[in-house]
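Example S7 (structure tokens).
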């Protein structure tokens, strides 16, 4: 089987068959990662550039490791140490890189739609590693893979996405994916951090009460407060946010049921999650990091030139 698209620009563009194929392929690659020899020759002679115009730790390292495990040749680009810092345009930068015969581009950019723009101008396969506040498709895929691994299903699950929904590309990609795969989604957070259109546009429930939301859900995906993307004051203080929307051990114990705790990282400990929650047996945060490599291996493999040619 092959994906229905040449690029991974967003979950919005994927079919349910595409999502299922990526998740099943990731399961196979996770088995590979458990072996003593973790490297496979699947992308030998494929050249991939990691084009990161925004800071990243987990996503960048995860893609780099996935590429190495697949035996690809990689080039790492950081905007701060490149000609982009001298005023070179995005298209000129990528065109110059492609003249070096690059097959695939993994791209993170602060501008929403930047990967879509590139996909219309260059022949290489584009993988969106996060664009502005739009989407972060591989994070949603690894979140879904982690939920599936933990609970055995996505269909029929009740999943809460909690926190800074307004500025989160992770939230949007998760909503698209979970709804396509049959889950019910509720978003929860301060009214100033939840877009007014979200219920009608994306078909999710909205609840501003954290305790009610946790009583309802099977899985809580807790998001980071993204102060760097907020250009105005949207809540009084981190302390007050933590009191109203932070998850602590006392709150979890009061639910009288066990829910799964997730977080895409990095965690603001003591704000979104207390340490005794983030590090508890209910948390699958470290599993998300581990699964990110397998999921990104699957995406790279399925979009690679050899796979798309049926090799």
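Recovered sequence:
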């Amino acid at each position: 089987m092959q994906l229905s698209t040449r690029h991974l620009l967003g979950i919005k563009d994927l079919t349910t068959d595409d999502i299922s194929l990526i998740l099943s392929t990731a399961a196979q690659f996770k088995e590979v990662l458990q072996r003593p020899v973790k490297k496979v020759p699947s992308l030998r002679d494929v050249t991939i550039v990691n084009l990161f115009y925004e800071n990243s730790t987990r996503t960048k390292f995860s893609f780099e490791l996935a590429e190495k495990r697949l035996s690809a040749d990689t080039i790492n680009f950081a905007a701060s140490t490149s000609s982009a810092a001298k005023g070179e345009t995005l298209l000129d930068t990528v065109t110059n890189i492609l003249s070096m015969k690059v097959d695939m581009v993994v791209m993170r950019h602060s501008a929403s739609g930047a990967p879509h723009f590139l996909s219309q101008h260059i022949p290489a396969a584009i993988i969106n590693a996060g664009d502005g506040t739009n989407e972060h498709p591989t994070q949603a895929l690894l979140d879904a893979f982690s939920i599936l691994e933990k609970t055995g299903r996505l269909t029929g699950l009740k999943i809460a996405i909690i926190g800074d929904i307004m500025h989160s590309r992770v939230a949007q990609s998760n909503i698209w994916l979970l709804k396509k795969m049959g889950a019910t989604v509720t978003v929860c957070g301060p009214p100033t951090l939840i877009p007014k259109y979200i219920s009608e546009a994306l078909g999710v429930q909205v609840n501003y009460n954290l305790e009610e939301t946790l009583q309802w859900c099977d899985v809580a995906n807790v998001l980071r407060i993204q102060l760097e993307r907020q250009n105005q004051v949207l809540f009084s203080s981190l302390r007050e946010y933590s009191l109203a929307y932070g998850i602590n051990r006392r709150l979890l114990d009061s639910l009288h049921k066990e829910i799964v705790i997730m977080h895409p990282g990095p965690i603001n400990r003591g704000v979104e999650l207390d340490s005794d929650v983030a590090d508890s047996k209910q948390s699958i945060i470290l599993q998300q990091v581990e699964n990110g490599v397998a999921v990104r291996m699957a995406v790279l493999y399925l979009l690679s030139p050899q796979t798309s040619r049926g090799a």
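Notes on this example. The chain has 13 helices and nine strands.
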